[in-house]
Amino acid sequence: MLRIYLRKLSSMQSVPKNTTMNYAEEFVKFLNGSHSPYHAVENMKSVLLKHGFKELSERDGWNGKIERKGKYFVTRNSSSIIAFCVGGQWKPGNPVAITGAHTDSPTLRIKPISKRTSEKYAEIGVECYGGGIWHSWFDSDLAVAGRVFVRDRSTGDVVSKLVDLNKPLLKIPTLAIHLDRDVNQKFEFNRETQLLPIGGLVKSDQVSSESKSEDTFSSLKSIVERHNEDLIKLIVKELGLESESDIDDFELILYDYAASTLGGLNNEFIFSGRLDNLTSCFTSLHALVLAADTSLDQEHGIRLMASFDHEEIGSSSAQGADSNFLPNILERLTSLKADGTDESNPLSKSFLLETSAKSFFLSSDVAHAVHPNYANKHESQHKPLIGAGPVIKINANQRYMTNSPGLVLVKKLADKANVPLQLFVVANDSPCGSTIGPILASKTGIRTLDLGNPILSMHSIRETGGSADLDLQIKLFKAFFEDYSSLESTIIV
């Protein structure tokens, strides 16, 4: 699916400024090509490159590489990405308008040693990633995607390759009601022993392959010894490798084989996994692409979007929102002079502090739409609707970072862009989730507001979002990128 998505991107002409893109259909294509965070970032890179953004590397110095009116992006671990465009009037100490999202979703990940057999079934050992609604994974057709580390036979280097085995390979079967008469009253299962996908039948004459000779030392068992051989063969075929021994390791996740799609009687819904939070990745990406070509020569700030991995497990990783990824990029940008050369005077640190004090961060993650069958789970005056616009999320205990100055700012932007807004507060007798907003606000001191598009069945293998909400959020983010630097000094705190 990734190759298909990339071919579609390369064949598309740049969208004329007077043409409206069908974002719902484009989002469905994006979802169907982004079955892992690695694929999502690769697809985002492709869109950015198509619109003239240049790739930078954290391994290099950026002296002389950053120019006013320039458009750039940088990735970390191939699963997090930051993209930005530099205003024509930019100088260190000026504000940065930032949107933030995350690329990961609750899923099942293949364990380092996944080979299992039981009652002559071949099973795959999986680990629960994040807080998924795991019962929704039963009886779904499951496929596999991720990245594989392969030895290049010509150079000896180990390189990363994306793989998407987009076919129904695995299944977690439920127990028949005849063997569990109480299943409709209470569905309980053991996540270690009963959330195991089956992948096939074990042949009576099947023996494990050995990829190393007995006199060759290896600190770990070979990839074929640790994993199902038929699965490895599928990966070898998909990547065009010569043999299983070319694979050093992989990071693979399971996903629902059923394609993402528009749904509802009037296509008002999007049915898919990973709406949390590829929704915000998609809307911030397209808003930045639009804003990058609008009045950039008059902009005295920087317009920046960030999408991080590992939000679903707390963000504490080298590529999570709790890492130094965004702070490091801001430090690099505020230590460069307007001509892109290094600002080597003692004021460089002061410029970073000035920029942080003037900047704003829109933390964008999906919100809880009111559920028509469980409306009593919502606070009575705060019931967001699908199709009614972005939801501003508020929590007195700072699980969300919204406060009045931020709300005033976003209201001004939404009024100008003709985007309706909704408000959400969790009921006092319900638990409240959180986002990357509090993490980055406390790490950087940047003013922050939490918002997101409403969806149903959050963290299920199959979620439901709104088609119209995509365009509304893109319009809001575009207004934020274009107008924030001129608005920020008018709201006095």
From TrEMBL:
The keyword Metal-binding applies. Transmembrane segments: none annotated. Its cofactor is Zn(2+). GO terms for biological process: proteolysis. InterPro entries: Peptidase_M18 (IPR001948), Peptidase_M18_dom2 (IPR023358). One of its GO terms (cellular component) is fungal-type vacuole. Its EC number is 3.4.11.21. One of its GO terms (molecular function) is zinc ion binding. It catalyses: Release of an N-terminal aspartate or glutamate from a peptide, with a preference for aspartate. It holds the Pfam family Peptidase_M18. Keywords: Aminopeptidase, Hydrolase, Metal-binding, Metalloprotease, Protease, Zinc. Belongs to the peptidase M18 family. This is aspartyl aminopeptidase. It comes from Torulaspora globosa.
